[in-house]
Write the structure tokens for this entry.
Amino acid sequence: MEAASVSHLEHDHHGPPEANKSSRVDPAMLGMLLFIISEIMVFGAFFTAYFFIRVVNTDSWPALGQEIPWAIAGINTLILISSSLTLHWALHSVKSGNRFAFKVGMLSTFLLGACFLFIQVNEYIHLGYSPTESAQGSIFYGLTGLHGAHVFIGLTLLLMVTVRAFRGHFSAEHHRGVEVPGIYWHFVDVMWVVVYATIYIL
């Protein structure tokens, strides 16, 4: 009788078996990490062109007659680093059940990120040259513009998290929706530090 029941259950199952899920890595977290790895490769392609001009061709950086506002970008860098700190504070707050600090932290992070992007766009307006005037200009606009696009995506994610935070979503037990976008935002911040040190300082 038991064998007949097992056989009946086997016949009731249709389609392929269920996918094997690892208990060690959350699927959302794994997806974000793989996405970040692919984005590092994209940035790597732009950095390759940058180092080709400076190391292989030994061209001047920036091009003659062009300037890069490293001081303003330095202030902007501090703003973006501050946004990582407020995001860390927000995540720590939601884990500890402090909803007020969580909402303030998320709102602060979004506003700091928006301020960074505004200053970046304002920098483009006052540079005085376009990406078509020289190879150096193309790489400068390409790298900083690529990062700016990532900041915009990150701000979209932060806005969604912030709106949900004010609607009472997330808790000490359920905060994956904050943690995963947070990893992306920290990646954006770290990548900007690399871009700033390479493009503006070196």
Q: What stands out?
A: The first helix runs from residue 2 to 12. The chain has a mean pLDDT of 89. Residues 27-57+69-201 form a domain with the Four Helix Bundle (Hemerythrin (Met), subunit A) fold (CATH 1.20.120.80).
